[in-house]
Design goal:
Helix content: 10-25%
Order of helices and strands: HEEEEEEEEEEEEEEEEEHHEEEEHEEHE
Radius of gyration: 47 Å
Number of strands: 24
Distance between the termini: 141 Å
CATH class of the largest domain: Mainly Beta
Strand order of the largest sheet: 1-2-3-4-5-6-7-10-12-13-14-15-16-17
Number of helices: 5
Structural class: alpha+beta
Length: 514
């Protein structure tokens, strides 16, 4: 009889070894059942889950679980507590674990979550449930024996829009339990092995109210073959759902459920074995009940449809915001390009100034000797420049009297600049002179043309070029006037227009005899 008892215990241990962690079908309703990383991922909710497996078979697994989880105010940190009782034949297991989960966001709809559960597990062998044929041998192991150990679960979750991936490692500590016989000195050892699971799901939107979600779950344990579950969930407004499931080489299942008054959650799952157990069992049954804490109900609350409309509006706003951000980035890029262009204009000006800086002292002396000073309505000149001169437009083209080198032949009277300090005064007839508002001067014609282009770009001002009477300077002028009064106005206008400091020095008046 002792051999029969030991065989019974070992067979039970074999069943538990193959199914050391309780199996629930409703992980698509309460994902915290399966993955601690999802604690606090939704509303604060309390769930009760009852599962009776292989109804009609004595010693078949029965499981009950209670969970409560929610998020802190930052919506990134989740806390939870889960406790379950699992009974398989003479083995009973009770566990309670606290969970901490944290979310790390990459964007509004792209994040990962990490979760860790830790607690105590009590494993119990109920020897009093063993029925011995010989009553005298029922004392072999009359006392039920308990063994307690620490245990832990790690979870990982990845979410990108409607795609969700998960990974879970159960029984991290691989705790072991020892039981002693009160009749013999033999010892029974029982140990946990690590279990792993991976999940993948995607939510497909069908029109406005329907959602279709394929869900794949892969389970594996050390030394055991992997097993997968395939689910196809159809939900209407996330209020009513139906789920079809297949557990490879184990069972088929169908689930129905819904949300009542936006607070109460209820669901039922019927599972039919796909093996020979179907000839001995009427199937498995599972019921899940949930309650959303703090969720509004009745007329003062929002229906799932209203919440969905709000979510859709938020999604639309997010898309518009994303579009505006892209437009802003585009405008910022265009502004940067404009800034680069402006910098290029300034660089061109600096290069031009560098090219004429060698002649700066000579130019300053030339201006001192040739600048026509305006005083009131009369004139006072430091220099009299007689003779004709050639001009060029802002695009570099010359008038009909221009020679190949860009200059115009001067008359015999213009061969030398003549000082007018002693022989000119305010009594001279102003109609005998031409007045030029000079904004720049340089030695070479190509330098003058470059400067004309810069002025045209920066101020949209067309200029022309005139040579002094000795053909030593190219003078870039913005206006050509016949009267002193008008020359004074144009000079004031030219000086006020130099808002970017383009001109090389202040504009000045150059007077030339007609």
């Amino acid at each position: 009889m002792r051999a029969i008892v030991l065989i019974t215990v070992l067979l039970s241990a074999g069943i538990v070894s193959a199914q050391q962690t309780p199996i629930f079908n409703n992980y698509f309703v309460n994902p915290y059942i399966l993955n601690p990383a999802l604690a606090g991922a939704g509303e604060t909710t309390v769930f009760l889950d009852f599962r009776k497996q292989w109804d009609g078979i004595i010693g078949a697994p029965e499981s009950q679980m209670i969970t409560v989880d929610g998020a802190l105010s930052n919506q990134k940190t989740g806390l939870g507590f889960a406790a379950y009782n699992d009974l398989t034949n003479v083995f009973s297991r009770v566990s309670g674990m606290f969970t901490f989960a944290q979310q790390f966001n990459f964007s509004e709809k792209h994040h990962i979550r990490l979760g860790l559960s830790g607690g105590i597990t009590q494993n119990k062998i109920q020897f009093d449930k063993i029925n011995a044929e010989d009553p005298t041998e029922s004392v072999i192991m009359t006392n039920n024996q308990n063994a307690t150990a620490f245990d832990g679960i790690f979870g990982f979750s990845y979410s990108l829009h409607n795609l969700k991936l998960g990974f879970v490692a159960n029984q991290l500590l691989e705790s072991s339990f020892e039981y002693e016989s009160s009749f013999t000195e033999r010892q029974l050892d029982f140990g946990f092995i690590r279990h792993y699971s991976a999940t993948m799901s995607y939510d497909f939107k069908i029109k406005d109210d329907w959602e279709l979600s394929p869900i794949l779950l892969l389970r594996s344990a050390q030394g055991a073959k992997a097993q997968f579950d395939g689910n196809l969930k159809l939900a209407y407004q996330k209020v009513v759902w139906m789920n079809l499931a297949y557990r490879h080489n184990v069972a088929y299942a169908i689930s129905l459920g819904g949300v009542i008054d936006n607070k109460i959650i209820a669901g039922y799952t019927y599972e039919l074995p796909s093996t020979q157990l179907a000839n001995h069992s009427s199937g498995s049954h599972e019921i899940i009940l949930g309650y959303r804490i703090g969720k509004s109900s009745g007329q003062g609350g929002l229906s799932e449809r209203q919440l969905k409309k709000i979510q859709d509006a938020q999604d639309e706003l997010y898309e518009k915001t994303d579009f505006l951000e892209q437009e802003n980035e585009k405008q910022d890029k265009e502004l940067e390009e404009q800034k680069i262009k402006l910098d290029n204009f300034i660089d061109g000006l600096e290069q031009w100034k560098d090219s004429v800086r060698l002649d700066e002292d000579a130019l300053r002396k030339f201006i001192e000797e040739n600048e026509f000073q305006l005083k009131g309505n009369g004139t006072e000149s430091n220099q009299n420049n007689s003779g004709t001169n050639q001009t060029a437009t802002s695009d570099g083209s010359s008038n009909q009297n221009q020679q190949d080198d860009g200059s115009k032949p001067n008359s015999d009277d213009d061969k030398d600049d003549q000082s007018g300090r002693d022989n000119l005064n305010e009594e001279l007839d102003p109609s005998h002179f031409q007045y030029y508002v000079i904004v720049g001067a340089c030695r070479k014609l190509n330098q003058a043309k470059d400067f004309q282009k810069i002025v045209l770009r920066e101020y949209e001002l067309s200029t022309k070029v005139v040579r002094n009477s000795r053909d030593t300077w190219y003078l870039i002028y913005s206006a050509e006037i016949n009267s002193v009064k008008e020359a004074k106005k144009e000079l004031k206008k030219a000086r006020a227009s130099d808002t970017k400091g383009v001109y090389f020095g202040k504009p000045w008046i150059y007077r030339h005899a007609k």
